[in-house]
Amino acid sequence: MRGSLLAGFMTWQLLKVVMACLAHSWTCSGLLLIWHLLLMPAIAKATLVSYKPNIVIFLADDLGIGDVGSYGNDTIRTPNIDRLAKEGVKLTQHISAAPLCSPSRAAFLTGRYPIRSGTDQTDVFRVLQWLGSSGGLPANETTFAKILQKQGYTTGLIGKWHQGVNCKYRNDHCHHPLNHGFDYYYGMPFSLMGDCRVTDPPEMNMPLRIKLWCYTQIIALAVFTLIAAKLAHLVFISWKFIFLLTLFGSLFFISWFSSYGFIRYWNCIMMRNYEITEQPMKVERTAPLMLKEAMSFVERNKEGPFLLFVSFLHVHTSLVTTEKFTGKSKHGLYGDNVEEMDFMIGRILDVLDNNNLTNSTLVYFTSDNGGHLEAQERNARWGGWNGIYKGGKAIAGWEGGIRVPGLFRWMGVLPEHKVIDEPTSLMDVFPTLVNLAGGTVPQDRIIDGRDLMPLLQGLVQHSEHEFMFHYCGILLHAVRWHQKDSGNVWKAHYVTPIFQPKGSGGCYDIRFCPCSGERVEHHNPALLFDLSRDPSEEVPLSPETEPLFHMVLKKIEKVVEEHRTTLTPVPQQLSFYNSLWNPWLQPCCGTFPFCGCDKEKEKREHF
Ligand SMILES: *[C@@H]1O[C@H](CO)[C@@H](O)[C@H](O)[C@H]1NC(C)=O
Ligand SMILES: *[C@@H]1O[C@H](CO)[C@@H](O)[C@H](O)[C@H]1NC(C)=O
Ligand SMILES: *[C@@H]1O[C@H](CO)[C@@H](O)[C@H](O)[C@H]1NC(C)=O
Ligand SMILES: *[C@@H]1O[C@H](CO)[C@@H](O)[C@H](O)[C@H]1NC(C)=O
Questions:
Q1: Looking at the CA of 413, which ligand is closest?
Q2: 128, 145, 276, 376 - which has most CB atoms within 10 Å?
Q3: 31 CA from centroid of ligand 1 (Å)
Q4: Which of the residue ranges 15-29, 74-88, 230-244, 362-376 would you say has the lowest mean pLDDT?
C-alpha cells in the first residue's frame, strides 16, 4: 500500500521533471527515463509484496450462499467462517465458472473457463462418473499449485479432488494431484456420492439380488435365442428390439453387480500421495482424519511459505456427519454437516493463531457451486440454500447455481470487515496467488481470472471483469455485463432450464436440470435482467421498461462473438469414451479385481 503510493508520487514527480527537461534538453530527459525504468519496478515490487504469504484455501462442496451466517443466515451457526468475514473482505458477487464440481474446480485450479481445458461437457456426463475412467484435468494444464511449487512453496491438498487419476494404465497418475503441483496429497480422489456409505442407501437384500441375477440370465438367453432365430430368418423382429432387450439386460446386470457394493470399492477410496490407504473408505472417520492431516501439514510447514488447499467433502450428500454434530443444528442433517465443516475450519484457524501465522497467511473460503435444491432424502432437505438467488447446482445461468460465498482474510494487509459487491470469479484466485508468490501466469494460453489484490486492498474501485460467460457444459447460457460507468450489472439469458414444478427453481423430477434438449427454453431476444436492481432475476426487462434494452443486447452479442474467436478445440475430457469405467485404469489396493485395504486401522476416529 505504502509502496504503491510512493511509486505513484515518484512517477508524478518524475513526469514533472521530464516535462521540464523536454523543454531544455533531450539528454536530460533520456537519462531520467532510464533511471526511472531501472528503479521504479524494483521499488514497486519490493514494497507492495515484501514476503510470500502462506496460503490456506477452504473449498466447500455444494454449499449455498444462503447457508452462511455472514451472508445473512441467522439460524445456522458458522462462527468460524463468519470470523473470516469479520477479519477480512467479503465478496458478495463471487461467481464460479460452472455450476458443477469437476468443471468448476478445473477452472478454479487453472484460472480458465472449463471449455478451454475440455473439462466440461453437455448433458452426457457433466462430471467424472468413475475413478477408473480416463478423463480428468489434462497434464498440460497449469494449476496455481504448480506455479507456487516452483516459487518455493510447499503445497498440500487435503480432501476431494474429482479431477481424474489415470489416463492410459493403472498407475500412470497423469491426472493425480501430485502431477498437478501438489507436494502432498491426502484425501478422496473422487467425490462423496451416495454409494460410499455402507448404510445409506442400504445394501440390496439377498432375495432381490438373486432376482436381478435371474432376470439378467433370462434376458441374456432371450437375446441369444432371438439373434440366432433372426439370423436363421425364423422370426421378424427388428434389431432395435434386440438392442433394447440387451440394454435392459445390461441394466439388470449392472444393478446386480453394484449390489455387492462394488461401486463403493471402485469410487470410494482414500489416498495418501500415490498410495491407497482405504478401499473402500470408512466415511465416518474421514472428516477427523482430514482435519488431523490439515493441522499437521501446517505444523510441519510453519517455516513457510506453504499452500494448504483444504477441499471438503462437506456438504455434499450423503452428509456424513460425526456423532458430535449429529442432531445439533436447527436444519437437520444438512445443518449438522455445515456446522461440522465450520468447526473444522475453526480448528485449522486455531493452528494458524497458535503458530503466530495469522498475519502472514492469506485465508480464502468459497464453495464450488450453489446449493443443490433438488437433493432430498426421506422427506428432508439434503441440499443447500441459495438465499434470494434463483436456481441452484447444475444450473449455469441463474445466480443460485454460480453465486457462492467468497471470503479473503490477510490481517494487516487486507482491510477488515469490508464488503465488496463487484463481480469477481473463483478463477481470479489463480493469478492472485501466482502474483503473490512472485511468479508469472502462463503466457502461452488465455487466463480468464484477474488479480484480485488491488480490489481487495481497496487500491481500485472496480474489478477487472467487465463480462462473464456462464456456460452450461459447452453451451453458453448467459452473459453478465458489468457496466462500470453506470454500475448496472446486466445479465442476458439465451437458454434457461424448464423448472418442474413450475417456478420452483429446480428440476425436482429429474434431480439435475440439463443444459439442452426438451427441458430447456431458448430466448430470442435474450431474457435481460439488471442484477443491480433485481438480484433475484424476477422481472425480465423489455424495450418498454428499459430504454437501453437493445443497446445492451447488441453490445453483449458483439462481445460473445469476440469471445468465441478465443476458443480453440481441445480433447473432451468428459466424452462418452473418457467417461466409461475401465478395469485397467481402476486404482486398486491389492490384485485387481480383488481390491481392498485399510491402512488407517490404528488411527483415531473422533474429533
Ligand atoms: C439458513 O440455512 C438453512 C439451511 O440451508 C435454510 O433452511 C434457511 O432458510 C436459511 N436461513 C436464511 C435466513 O437464509
Ligand atoms: C509473530 O509474527 C510477527 C510477524 O508476522 C513477528 O514480527 C513476531 O515477532 C512474531 N511473534 C512471535 C512471538 O513469534
Ligand atoms: C496482526 O495484525 C493485526 C492487524 O493489523 C494487528 O493488530 C496485530 O498486532 C498483528 N499481530 C501480530 C502478532 O503481528
Ligand atoms: C494441451 O494438449 C491438447 C492436446 O494436444 C491441446 O489441444 C491443448 O491446446 C493443450 N493445452 C495447452 C494449455 O497447452
A1: 3
A2: 128
A3: 64
A4: 15-29
